[in-house]
Amino acid sequence: MKVLSFAAVGIHGRECRARAVGASLALVVAVSGFAQPLSSQDVAAELAARIASVVTPPEPIQLSTADADAPLRADLVRLLRARGLQVADAATVTVRVTCGENLRDDFCAADIERRGGRQVVAVSKPRVSGTDRAVEPSVTLTLRPVYAQRAQMLDVAPVADQLIVLEPGRLTLRPRRAEANETPPPIASVPVLTARSMPRDVRGRVRATGESFEALLPGVTCRGVVKPFSANCADEGSAWPLGIDNSGIVASRNHFSTPEGLGFFGVASIGTSAAPAWLMADDRGALVFLDAQRAPAGRAGAADDIIRIQASCSAGAYVVTSSRAAGAEDVDEVQLQRIVERALVPVATVRTTGIVTALWADAGASHATAIVRSGTVPRYEAFAVSVSCVR
Fold first, then answer.
1. In order of start, what are the domains of the chain with their CATH numbers?
2. Are 62 and 93 in contact (CB under 8 A)?
3. Residues with Cβ < 8 Å from 347, sequence gap 6 or more?
4. Where do the DSSP E strands lie in 115-210?
5. 137 Cα distance to chain centroid
6. Any idea what the Cα angle at residue 181 is, between residues 175 and 186, rounded to 5°?
7. Mean per-residue pLDDT over the chain, rounded
8. Which candidate, 219, 214, 292, places its Cα nearest to that of 257?
9. Three-state SS at 123
10. In the structure, what pLDDT confidence band is assigned to residue 31 with cuts at 50, 70 and 90?
């Protein structure tokens, strides 16, 4: 796994401290499949090594696997004990191992839970047919610069060769430039007129369809056209395009609510009525699976924000999350993760030099937008986020 650092952004409800960092022009993180197919013993050895990297002696482990995975459990017990770890019937650390498959891979993920939190580690291998090994593509998370400016930026929306930029108090139409470190002069600008008091960590979303656009802020909805550039704003709430029923963001808040009253910062649509339908980053920072009735159906760790993203060459559901990097101050990690059963399998991680303020997926989930705040003098950068595959 390759880890890169790049210019950062701020997240909901956090203090934003200034940092000196360099501007980033293009970011690509690629993680390939294993170079050779793995045997079941290899899977057990790799998984045991990853569990041991998280749990250290003398912490005892309560290990559980599905009944069909009894041979894997026996191998794990042997390998963990060889590393000095105790496996007991009752312990303060529980390790639940889940294995699954899709069209290309076999997976085993270990959900490690103890006081202070949870962590998931995982291994995967290409599925093998006869003596032939399937060619495993590299899954690549790409962040490409779109636009940068000094003023606070909430979201951007491309319109042909132009860009609509949403700020807390105005909408601006600007030409698109390949050089993200340049701020092109505006073509036109209109104020966001409202009597609402915006929250300290205001969030906003702008979407363009043809020559018209819509901008959403807490308790405010603006509708406009590109030619001539104009907008009318009203103090009214609207549901935001998140892939789940919601009441939008009310004035003075920065999180959403479902009709059932669940508060959340981000959500990814991941399944059907036969499986968890959504994975939500709730207003306490937990990742929570929801069933088709939007009721909690399990947890999958923690994150500040989450979106669904498509990987055209690989089956299954992928999500992108942002969260605070462990042991670091004002540093985030952006992760591409695959959902296997009810566990998250990390695919690629980008460690930022700041904090992610916005993460929005487009309607088809093939692309997304990340807004990044960086520098001792605040600088906001918009990145286009996508997943591609290289064989």
1. 27-32+139-390 (2.130.10), 40-135 (3.30.160)
2. yes
3. 31, 139, 141, 318, 335, 336, 337, 338
4. 117-126, 128-129, 132-133, 138-149, 155-159, 162-166, 170-175, 188-191, 205-209
5. 21
6. 30
7. 79
8. 219
9. strand
10. very low
Kindly give, in sequence order, each residue whose CB lies less than 8 Å from that of residue 330, ignoring residues fewer than 6 positions away: 8, 17, 19, 354, 355
User: Packing angle between helix 70-82 and helix 40-54, nearest 10 degrees?
Assistant: 50
First-to-final CA distance of the chain: 17
Please give the pLDDT value at position 136. Answer: 52
For the chain, what is the radius of gyration of the CA atoms?
A: 22
Length of the chain: 391
| pLDDT at position 27 | 41
For residue 105, the one-letter residue type is D
pLDDT of res. 357: 93
What tokens does 38 get? Answer: 């793995």
Write the DSSP string, 298-365.
Answer: EEEEE-SEEEEE--TTS-SEEEEEEEEPTT-SS-EEEEEEEEETTEEEEEEEEE-SSEEEEEEE-TTS
Separation CA 67–CA 205 (nearest Å): 47
- Determine the Cα–Cα distance for residues 365 and 8; give it in Å rounded to an integer: 22
Between CA 368 and CA 319 the distance in angstroms is 11
Mean pLDDT of all residues in 301-329:
84
- d(CA 284, CA 303) in angstroms, rounded, equals 9
Sheet holding 170-175, edge to edge: 155-159, 162-166, 170-175, 188-191
Q: Which phi and psi angles does 250 have, rounded to 5°? A: -80, 160
The residues, any chain, with a CB within 8 Å of residue 168's CB and separated by 6 or more, are: 152, 154, 192, 198, 202, 204, 217
CB atoms within 10 A of CB 138: 14
The single-letter code of the amino acid at 187 is I
DSSP state for residue 186 in the 8-state scheme: P
Residues 290 and 280: beta-carbon distance below 8 Å: yes
* pLDDT greater than 50 at residue 16: no
Model pTM? 0.69
**Predicted pLDDT at 99:** 80
